[in-house]
Amino acid sequence: MIALAPLLFVLPALGALINFLAGRRANAWGHWLGVATVVASFVIGLLLFFETLGLAPEERTREVSLFDWIASGSLNVDFGLRLDPLSLTFVLLITGVGSLIHIYSVGYMSHDPGRRRFFAQLNLFVAAMLILVLGNNFVMLYLGWEGVGLASYLLIGFYQDRPSAATAAKKAFLMNRVGDVGLAVAIFLIWLELGTLQYTDVFARIGEVPGGTVLAITILLLLGACGKSGQFPLQSWLPDAMEGPTPVSALIHAATMVTAGVYLIARTSPIYNLTETGRLIVSLVGVVTLLIGAVIGCAYDDIKKVLAYSTVSQIGYMILAVGLGPAGYALGIFHLLTHGFFKAGLFLGAGSVMHAMNDDVNMRHFGGLGKHMKITFVTFGLGYLALIGFPFLSGYFSKDAIIEAAFAQEGWQGWVFGGAATLAAGLTAFYMTRLMIMTFFGKERWRELKGPDGKDYHPHESPATMTVPMIVLAFGSVLGGFLLYSIGLYEWLAPSVGELRELEGGVLPHALVPWLVVAFSLLGVVIAYLVVGRRPTPVERPSPVSVPVRAARRDLYANTINETLIERPGIWLTRALVFVDNRGVDGAVNGIAAGLGGGSGRLRRLQTGFVRSYALSMLGGSVLVVAALLAVRFA
Amino acid sequence: MSPMLIILLLVPVVGALLMYPLRHNVPAAKATAMATALLEFVLVVVIWVGYSPAAAASGTRFQYEFSVPWIPAFGTHLAFGIDGIALVLLALTAFLVPGLMLFAWAEKLPEGRTASGYFALLLATEATLVGVFTATDVFLFYVFFEAMLIPMYFLIGRFGGPNRQYASVKFFLYSLLGGLIMLASLIGLYVTSGNILGQGTFTWSELQSIAHQVPESTQIWLFLGFFIAFAIKAPLVPFHTWLPDAGAEAPIVAAVLLVGVLDKVGTYGFLRYTLPLFPEASRTMAPLVITLAVIGVLYGALLAVGQKDMSRFVAYTSIAHFGFIALGTFAFSSQAFAGAALYMVNHGLSTGMLFVMVGLLVARGGSRLISDYGGVAKLAPVLAGCLLLAGMSSLALPGTNSFVSEFLVLVGSFPNEPVATIIATVGIIFAALYILWFYQQTMQGPVRGQAVLNSLEPVGGPGAMIDPAVAARRGGGFPDLTKREIGALAPLIVVIVVLGFFPGPVLDVINPSVQATMTELGLPDPVPAGGIAR
């Protein structure tokens, strides 16, 4: 059955190809082709999953080599796949959530003239993402890595006549490429040291590499992960990526692509296992990011941006987890999966709200939508509870496990990691409750307003193609954590990322941690209720506001910093260089040409026709020649 | 002795000569030219099929060899032969020319110029390129190297844009200067070989066999002569300023030939001549060249973003790419060499396509200014898609041809030149920047720009709100690609994508010749099997 593995990515790739090439002829059926290829991939993924489940744990890593991709000298890059518990877990997430979001998109994009193009790009994304997780070497990873970057670029810029969408797409691609440089240099280093890029060989021999080089490799890989996963300091593209259609935000910028950084670190766990410093840096990046995301999430009024910063923050949790090493890889993947369910569900819910509200995203224009769209309200509400870690919903299991593991670190790390993660859990509860109240409860503020298209709002429930995926994901949000935990996700992942190390020691008793987290979350909910729920929400954004709120509204100045340090100097440098090239370099050339032209004019005047002047110049020349000869002889 | 290469050389010459009697019958001239170009392509395919990488790997330096004495007094020969690197460049040339003719088919030529002359010059350029890539006698190579200038000079000077006189003279003088310096070195090389062998020679393999016996100080002088000629041709910063002018003023098909293939003669010259003939000097001078290369990567990219003219924009992106090729060429590992050789082919394809897309845009809007276009994707989605694909290939996205070569160059350069490689790798951010910047300016956003609006104007009248859909229905507006244009682009698109996933056939041809170059340099690969950790 393993022979079917290539079809996993070939089918969506074919779907993309046909939808791109068939042109308008495919407008009638292209979207269903897109859905069919991803569903088919999901079925194949399930078959392979159950087949693997039937094997003994040590036989669950299998490779399929398709052909030699890049070969020169001692370098040989295989176009090959690696099927192991980690990659299969991702395959099921990508194709499973992917199928639901494809189905949802049929309804969501039904009025869009570019629907076929949309499905082509979405299929392209699925194919690239599958290559990313299935590849059996670092170059395959890189192929998928930049492939999803392209798909993300295309989809963020889907509404391409909107300048903001085009700019956001460009920004996403560029910031990703900054990370890609790190990934690329890591690949060069690994090849230099080990002469191979196949995972199996690299992981078997990474111990031969000097410690300093291993640390460098882990930091470079982390840079790649930061770019793709929107982690500090490369986080600011992800909120802008919300310019894309909402299903894209759900699939690419919440459930799958942005978690590729977590995948990368889990995948290369044998490398990270060797360097405690490297892991510490990973965790620190995760902690900083989860705080940044949670703080900024409190300040936005744009429903998608709040969810986007929530994603930044939740991926921060995952990065923190995988930075904890053998005690955390499986936890990071666990949270990644549950987050995939509930965050995709939340985004689809947000899309449903936008669908009902003339594509408006400003929560200040919403209010009281709960009774107009009950299915959206309930499914979104369940996703909300899962995200804030309501006991026994999926986020409770996965997030708590990470916070417990963080507190189980010794010394300052335990306090800082655990404390920050707990604080952010409280903030998460705050911003999500604020979002819920502003959107679904309270006064129906939209009644006195007009939509961005100048028409009245008529909120209504979305069609079945949209609500059914939302319901399925809501089930996942409720049950996913418990199911994954009880069927033994950790043992299943062990062949890929190692056994999950039992927690011991730490700065707080383990039994206390869940209570602490619930208490903080409750506090967040209560404060949100006091701030937003008991007072009418102004339709206009209040200003002036306090300094922290102002900072949060401006993304903690991340864009300002980028602009001042990189963008503006870059523009000046470019202008200066153009000037130098035209006037300096080319000017010198033209100057020489002019000089020669003038010089030859003057030389012409030397051709006087007088024999004596020729004789003089011959004498001069001879002297020069003799002098040169003598100089050479004696040198 | 195989006559294949002589035939390959003569076919385009004959085709070009036939243009003269056909000058009053334009359709016949075009058909003949196209038939010649296609025949040439078929010949290259035949040669490719007959080329044996296995023989090359077991030590046969050149295949399809042909040699007759030319000027016995100087020991020059009409000697031809190809290795894998020459073969892939021949294939690139022969592949591009028919497609370019298709684009030139309906091109509006400057007043008083005939299509037969245009096509004759294209074929003449092709012939000189064949000569330059197949010569195995250094003097013969020099002759073709200089001869290449002549048809290109006329292509730019007679068929080019408004500023063509300036551009063509500049191009000619620049190249001629480089050529003359190379001639001086060539004579020096001849004399040196006479001192060692007792009888001077221009034959490449004889010169190579004595290369290590030439004292390094002599090698450095000779190296510099060749290097400057090739650095101007490639071009490397700071010898580059002729390229933006020539690339911008040349008609698009000539620009593709110029930047896509002709410039490769410079980088090809590095690999074929400077490294094997001056091995010690190449090693000594490598830091200098690598510095220029890395400067080129960043400088070209930053300047590209600052350009106002689309053709100059593409020219500057090429300068950045040539930096990568030069880096790979002077990083001395078989991966970097193979990457550099493959890069030459891939750059010809991707930049060729980029130039063609610019040409198609200019043909519609009548302006070369970037600011005259905007939001074209809404009016001409297929054109925009093709432009984006060309751009993705140019920024070396994995899955396109260029990724394979850029990856090989960088991974192969890293062991010997880690700092330069890291800086060049940062260049991939700049590559993304200039491509996406260009795409956003011209294709994305609302429909805008004088050239686009003018083309829509007849429908709505000046200043009217123009609904593109209405414009398209009435037959006016900014047309998307025609069937013929798509047909001409299709082979290019297919090759760009297929070589991204299956570079094997090309690499198989390149690799043995690259190994030979490593041997001639007398250097081992920096990364042994199993890496340096073992």
From TrEMBL, chain A:
<protein>
    <submittedName>
        <fullName>NADH dehydrogenase subunit L</fullName>
    </submittedName>
</protein>
<dbReference type="GO" id="GO:0003954">
    <property type="term" value="F:NADH dehydrogenase activity"/>
</dbReference>
<feature type="transmembrane region" description="Helical">
    <location>
        <begin position="512"/>
        <end position="532"/>
    </location>
</feature>
<feature type="transmembrane region" description="Helical">
    <location>
        <begin position="306"/>
        <end position="327"/>
    </location>
</feature>
<keyword id="KW-1133">Transmembrane helix</keyword>
<dbReference type="InterPro" id="IPR018393">
    <property type="entry name" value="NADHpl_OxRdtase_5_subgr"/>
</dbReference>
<feature type="transmembrane region" description="Helical">
    <location>
        <begin position="248"/>
        <end position="266"/>
    </location>
</feature>
<feature type="transmembrane region" description="Helical">
    <location>
        <begin position="278"/>
        <end position="299"/>
    </location>
</feature>
<feature type="transmembrane region" description="Helical">
    <location>
        <begin position="31"/>
        <end position="52"/>
    </location>
</feature>
<dbReference type="InterPro" id="IPR003945">
    <property type="entry name" value="NU5C-like"/>
</dbReference>
<feature type="transmembrane region" description="Helical">
    <location>
        <begin position="614"/>
        <end position="634"/>
    </location>
</feature>
<feature type="transmembrane region" description="Helical">
    <location>
        <begin position="470"/>
        <end position="492"/>
    </location>
</feature>
<feature type="transmembrane region" description="Helical">
    <location>
        <begin position="180"/>
        <end position="197"/>
    </location>
</feature>
<dbReference type="Pfam" id="PF00361">
    <property type="entry name" value="Proton_antipo_M"/>
</dbReference>
<feature type="transmembrane region" description="Helical">
    <location>
        <begin position="414"/>
        <end position="437"/>
    </location>
</feature>
<dbReference type="GO" id="GO:0015990">
    <property type="term" value="P:electron transport coupled proton transport"/>
</dbReference>
<dbReference type="GO" id="GO:0008137">
    <property type="term" value="F:NADH dehydrogenase (ubiquinone) activity"/>
</dbReference>
<feature type="domain" description="NADH:quinone oxidoreductase/Mrp antiporter transmembrane">
    <location>
        <begin position="136"/>
        <end position="422"/>
    </location>
</feature>
<dbReference type="InterPro" id="IPR001516">
    <property type="entry name" value="Proton_antipo_N"/>
</dbReference>
<feature type="transmembrane region" description="Helical">
    <location>
        <begin position="118"/>
        <end position="135"/>
    </location>
</feature>
<dbReference type="GO" id="GO:0016020">
    <property type="term" value="C:membrane"/>
</dbReference>
<keyword id="KW-0812">Transmembrane</keyword>
UniProtKB/TrEMBL annotation, chain B:
<keyword id="KW-0472">Membrane</keyword>
<protein>
    <submittedName>
        <fullName>NADH dehydrogenase subunit M</fullName>
    </submittedName>
</protein>
<feature type="transmembrane region" description="Helical">
    <location>
        <begin position="115"/>
        <end position="133"/>
    </location>
</feature>
<feature type="transmembrane region" description="Helical">
    <location>
        <begin position="34"/>
        <end position="58"/>
    </location>
</feature>
<feature type="transmembrane region" description="Helical">
    <location>
        <begin position="6"/>
        <end position="22"/>
    </location>
</feature>
<comment type="similarity">
    <text>Belongs to the complex I subunit 4 family.</text>
</comment>
<feature type="transmembrane region" description="Helical">
    <location>
        <begin position="251"/>
        <end position="273"/>
    </location>
</feature>
<dbReference type="InterPro" id="IPR010227">
    <property type="entry name" value="NADH_Q_OxRdtase_chainM/4"/>
</dbReference>
<feature type="transmembrane region" description="Helical">
    <location>
        <begin position="375"/>
        <end position="399"/>
    </location>
</feature>
<dbReference type="GO" id="GO:0015990">
    <property type="term" value="P:electron transport coupled proton transport"/>
</dbReference>
<dbReference type="GO" id="GO:0016020">
    <property type="term" value="C:membrane"/>
</dbReference>
<feature type="domain" description="NADH:quinone oxidoreductase/Mrp antiporter transmembrane">
    <location>
        <begin position="135"/>
        <end position="428"/>
    </location>
</feature>
<dbReference type="GO" id="GO:0008137">
    <property type="term" value="F:NADH dehydrogenase (ubiquinone) activity"/>
</dbReference>
<feature type="transmembrane region" description="Helical">
    <location>
        <begin position="285"/>
        <end position="306"/>
    </location>
</feature>
<feature type="transmembrane region" description="Helical">
    <location>
        <begin position="220"/>
        <end position="239"/>
    </location>
</feature>
<dbReference type="InterPro" id="IPR003918">
    <property type="entry name" value="NADH_UbQ_OxRdtase"/>
</dbReference>
<dbReference type="InterPro" id="IPR001750">
    <property type="entry name" value="ND/Mrp_TM"/>
</dbReference>
<dbReference type="GO" id="GO:0012505">
    <property type="term" value="C:endomembrane system"/>
</dbReference>
<feature type="transmembrane region" description="Helical">
    <location>
        <begin position="171"/>
        <end position="191"/>
    </location>
</feature>
<feature type="transmembrane region" description="Helical">
    <location>
        <begin position="340"/>
        <end position="363"/>
    </location>
</feature>
<feature type="transmembrane region" description="Helical">
    <location>
        <begin position="313"/>
        <end position="334"/>
    </location>
</feature>
<feature type="transmembrane region" description="Helical">
    <location>
        <begin position="486"/>
        <end position="504"/>
    </location>
</feature>
